[in-house]
Amino acid sequence: MAEILYAQNTHTFYVSNVQALTGEFLSTASAVVTLYDRTKHTEITGQSWPLTLSYISTTSGDFRGILSASMQVVTNQLLVAQLTITTANAKGYWEVPVVVQVRT
Q: Integer distance in angstroms from the first to the last C-alpha of the chain?
């Protein structure tokens, strides 16, 4: 199922339960995300990329970043969020489908 991004709204990109290969939750990983148009394979304009996600203190490996309401997206546009999380010993990469909607 695709995540929802509301057009013309400030949005929080949230990643939870980031764990090391050994199973412990991470707080010092480097986490970044970039949003692309899924059809055109181009970065979404109106936001600086990659967006660095910050660790949320006292959580179990949760990270977040704030996406600008100025991003140039349209209703029903299909996006992909490319997420990379890196530690000293490992790297993880995910692609998350995203669809743009209007908040009602």
A: 20
Give the pLDDT confidence of 30-50 residue by residue, as tens digits. Answer: 999 999 999 999 999 999 999
β-pair type (3-6, 91-101): parallel
Q: What is the pLDDT of residue 104?
A: 86
Mean pLDDT score of the chain: 94
Place of tokens 């490992």: 90
Q: Are 63 and 12 in contact (CB under 8 A)?
A: no
Cα(95)–Cα(10) distance, integer angstroms: 21
Q: Is 3-101 a CATH 2.60.40.10 domain?
A: yes
pTM above 0.85, yes or no: yes
Most distant CA pair in the chain, distance: 44
Q: Is the separation of the CB atoms in 15 and 85 below 8 Å?
A: yes
Tally of CB atoms within 10 A around 34: 16
Question: Which pLDDT belongs to residue 64?
Answer: 97
